[in-house]
Amino acid sequence: MAFRSDLRNIAIIAHVDHGKTTLVDAMLWQSGAFRANQDVAERVMDSGDLERERGITILAKNTAVVLPAAAGHAGIDVTLNVVDTPGHADFGGEVERALAMVDAALLLVDSSEGPLPQTRFVVRKALEAGLPILLVVNKIDRPDARIAEVVDETYDLLIDLGAGDAQLDLPVLYTNAREGTATLDPEHPGGDLAPLFAAILDHVPAPTHEPDHPFQALVTNLDASPYLGRLALCRIQNGHVRRGETVAWCREQGQVERVKLSEMYLTEALDRVQADEAGPGDLIAVAGIDDVTIGDTLADLADPRPLPRLRVDEPSLGMTLGVNTSPLAGRDGKQLTARLIQARLEQELVGNVSLRVLPTERPDTWEVQGRGELQLAILVETMRREGFELTVGKPRVVTKEVDDQIHEPFEALSIDVPEDYVGVVSQLLGLRKGRLQQMVNHGTGWVRLEYRVPARGLIGFRTEFLTETRGTGILHHVFDGYEPWQGDIRTRPNGSLVADRSGQATQFALLNLQDRGQLFIAPGAEVYAGMIVGENARSEDMDINPAKEKKLSNVRSATGDELVRLAPPRLLSLDQALEFIREDEAVEVTPASVRLRKVELDPALRARAAKRAKHGAAPS
Question: Residue 274 CA to chain centroid, in angstroms?
């Protein structure tokens, strides 16, 4: 086997919000990728609007920094390809693809929070891929840092996940990514990231290849260019390739086709630059293959040898997504028809291997399955911003049959709460069939609870949890296998306030209705029959008339000019709306609005169906 000593490929993996993207910022600055006076946004790798708004990484992206000969080995410059991965398990498909591009993983752990459920998820994927790991304890300047305990907890996690002796013999560094410092001793803070760069060069293996092996490259991601069309992002495993060369394209069903690579790019800092030739270990982007998909292999035309295809975990959550059928459809969006929605979903499948799109009984509705609520909500939000109008159903878990018994997905849930709220959190999770696995009191007034909960029980849990803990609680969860079906779980005790006619909501009507429950609309809002305008204080649904106007007469009222105090409505975000709805409800999503509605808008048909359900008759 031969080595490329001038190249290193590494992925940064961590739990969400532990500082991955901030550390990449510091690495770019200190490697000279930017001018000293260049105006660069914070978290420059999070380039998408949704990524910046939510403060999370959604898509895995790579950058390249050059370590000068003084830092490199054998007096040569070393190119370091760094892949920034999502920390949220809902985007696990991105993590799995990123790990197929690299030779080692840099595990980032918060110095106070320590390893959390999604840390376990990304570490398990790295160990399954056989990658060596570098441990970096970040945010060492936190006043509540517990560095030694976090290092011990990380070793326990690695042992629990079956790490080998070589993977346990890992270097440990301590960083403050915001300040751009790294050190081998937390008692003596560093002045820059030089210790981190040195550790990467010492412990990250150089890409290996067989010198006489024909060209092979695995397609691990896709991108698009307005000028070049679809771009295939590949890692070259063996051999060399030149721009304009004709290669073999090995597809999923075993077909092999001739294609010409019209353009080829390598990454320098944040830019793609045109390259004439690339070799083993290089991460390249190539154009000229319109229908290429993730997992395909590009190979030598004379000797095509396909590589094993990428496999990702199966989806655990699904929801229906279809055409907007409400009376207000077509007022805000431009993309309205089933054909356009289906084409957009098929386009999403090309670049997102962790999604599934299945047909339903209705031709204008599809079931979209993914890893979790956040991944599905991000898809709907992205389509909404592109001008689509949609009707979205309640998220449901994806079950499977094992030994003639239905099994449902379970989640490992980690909660940090002040001691005062342990009782109320335990009560909430008891109702949702959660089992307490471990409880740790750190002695700082905070308690960590670890539960195993049916995934169904966590749909809608976050909002209730934050309300009960007065916004102080922190929770994270990750998929943790299948178990037998746990029976009925009632997650929302209250019914809905449903409009019984179309019109504009009036202040007079809402003033009389606000004692019935929490309202979701303000005066002047357009409503229609079957639209949910609030949450009932009782368990059953209630049909109401929010468009009722005050009758005028020629008799002057002594109280007619009194100030009316109307409570402000509770405006739901898309995520909160998806959590709130029940089985017979849906979310109407348009570029300008998020409304809740009943699946069946006609109140008479709803009443008939409810009567049949009450008497145990099957609905027609």
Answer: 31
Give backbone dihedrals phi and psi of 578, rounded to 5 degrees, phi first.
Answer: -65, -35
582 — alpha (psi -120 to 50), left (phi > 0) or beta?
Answer: beta
CA-closest candidate to residue 453, choices 229, 117, 166: 117
Question: Tokens 């909960």 — which residue?
Answer: 453
Element (H, E) at 511: helix 507-513
**Beta strand ranges found along 335-377 (DSSP E):** 356-359, 365-370
36 against 304, higher pLDDT: 304
Degrees to nearest 5, angle at CA 487 with 484 and 488 = 150
Average pLDDT over residues 404-412: 87
- d(C-alpha 541, C-alpha 78), whole Å: 66
CA neighbor of 10 nearest in space, from 110, 79, 111, 91: 79
Amino acid (1-letter code) at residue 72:
G
What does 204-232 look like in DSSP terms, one character per residue?
SPPPEE-TTPPPEEEEEEEEEETTTEEEE
* Cα–Cα nearest to 245, from 229, 227, 228, 259: 259
Q: Which H, E and C letters describe 582-610, residue by residue?
A: CCCEEEEECCCCEEEEECCCCHHHHHHHH
Alpha-carbon distance 140 to 190, whole Å? 11
Which pLDDT score, from 0 to 100, does residue 378 have? 85
CA dist., res. 403 & res. 392, Å (int): 33
Contact 147, 174 (CB under 8 A): yes
| CA distances (Å), origin 285, targets 45, 243, 263, 267, 282 | 18, 11, 8, 9, 10
The C-alpha atoms of residue 288 and residue 283 are separated, in whole angstroms, by 17
Dihedral angle over CA of 434, 437, 443, 447, nearest 10: -20
3-state secondary structure 291-345: CCCCCCEEECCCCCCCCCCCCCCCCCEEEEEEECCCCCCCCCCCECCHHHHHHHH
Tokens encoding 579: 């959590």
Instruction: State pLDDT tens for residues 124-149.
Output: 888 888 888 888 898 888 888 888 88
pLDDT surpasses 70 at 56: no
Find out whether 519 and 556 touch, Cβ atoms under 8 Å: no
Task: Please state, in angstroms and rounded to a whole number, the distance separating the CA atoms of residues 170 and 422.
Answer: 36
CA dihedral of residues 27, 33, 38, 40 (deg, nearest 10): -50
Closest to 213 measured CA to CA, from 310, 103, 300, 301: 300
| Positions of E strands within 49-152 | 61-67, 78-84, 104-110, 133-138
Amino acid at 58: I
Phi, psi values for residue 299, rounded to 5°: -140, 175
> Tokens 């109401």, residue?
544
103-141 burial, b if ≥16 CB within 10 A, otherwise e? Answer: bbbbbbbbbbbbbbbbbbbbbbbbbeeebbbbbbbbbbe
Q: Distance between CA atoms of 370 and 397, rounded to whole angstroms?
A: 10
Report helix angle 92-99 to 117-128, nearest 10: 30
Taking only the tens place, the pLDDT of each residue in 251-308 is 877 888 888 888 888 887 777 888 888 888 888 888 888 778 888 888 888 888 888 8
